[in-house]
Design a protein that fits this description.
Elements (H helix, E strand, L loop, with lengths): L4 E7 L2 E8 L2 E5 L7 H8 L3 E6 L5 H4 L2 H8 L3 E3 L16 E2 L1 H17 L8 E3 L5 E2 L4 E8 L8 E5 L3 E5 L2 E2 L5 E2 L2 E2 L2 H12 L5 E4 L5 E2 L1
Parallel strand pairs: 3-4, 4-5, 5-7, 11-15
Antiparallel strand pairs: 1-2, 2-3, 6-14, 8-9, 9-10, 10-11, 12-13, 15-16
Length: 210
């Protein structure tokens, strides 16, 4: 039985997660600005050690700088997504299917108009990195590019994958409906399928079995 617990925080249509071991916790994604107070309240129930961003779109990263400063913790993300703090169009998004088209139309205006502050206390992570120095040796970074160049997820022991927007569950579980590169997204989808019997925690939608 795992000694890790995963708590979902719903921030409107998006999710972020607290991964805890006793009182110590990592926050995976931070939701959008309207959910900031709620996310801070949930984090206050733990001894927050670190923030990890699946990618740097506003609905996952808008609160990162504020929460980092409030709790005095660093923010980790992939270097390839750093450019999105300055210009979301550096990695233009496309979509597939009716669901993807609808989500894209709703997202583009907000992506371009929301200014996400780059966290001051930050560092980059890559595939295979762990967080042993923060007390989480059994949590490993997995690169899941396609939605963005630097999209990542977290493997929690052998029972869970926090997938960000590499997958979504708007209606049913599927590969992410928005992407910068569909071929890369398809490879990531195949990688996730190969991870076996885990619970998948999505950036959007309810968790399911892989």
């Amino acid at each position: 039985m795992s000694n890790y617990k995963i708590k979902r925080i719903k921030g409107g249509t998006d999710n972020c997660y607290l991964v805890s071991h006793g009182r110590d916790a990592i926050l995976f994604d931070t939701s959008s600005g309207t959910a900031c107070e709620m996310v801070i309240n949930e984090c206050s129930k733990y001894d927050l050690k670190l923030i990890v961003l699946s990618h740097t779109h506003f609905d996952h990263a808008e609160n990162a700088a504020v929460i980092s400063e409030k709790f005095g913790v660093p923010v980790a993300y992939h270097e390839a997504d750093d450019e999105l703090f300055d210009n979301y169009d550096a990695q233009p998004l496309r979509s597939y299917g009716l669901v993807g088209f609808a989500v894209l139309q709703l997202s583009l205006k907000a992506l371009r108009e929301t200014n996400v502050k780059r966290p001051l206390n930050r560092f980059y992570v890559k595939d295979g990195d762990t967080f042993e120095e923060y007390g989480f040796p059994d949590i490993k970074v997995v690169e899941l590019p396609g939605h963005t160049k630097g999209s990542i997820g977290l493997l929690v022991q052998d029972f869970a994958l926090l997938a960000g927007d590499a997958l979504d569950n708007w209606i049913r579980p599927a590969k992410g409906h928005l992407f910068y590169d569909i071929d890369v997204m398809n490879k990531t989808f195949g990688l996730i399928r190969s991870l076996g019997d885990r619970t998948v925690y999505y950036g959007h939608g309810n968790p399911t079995k892989n």
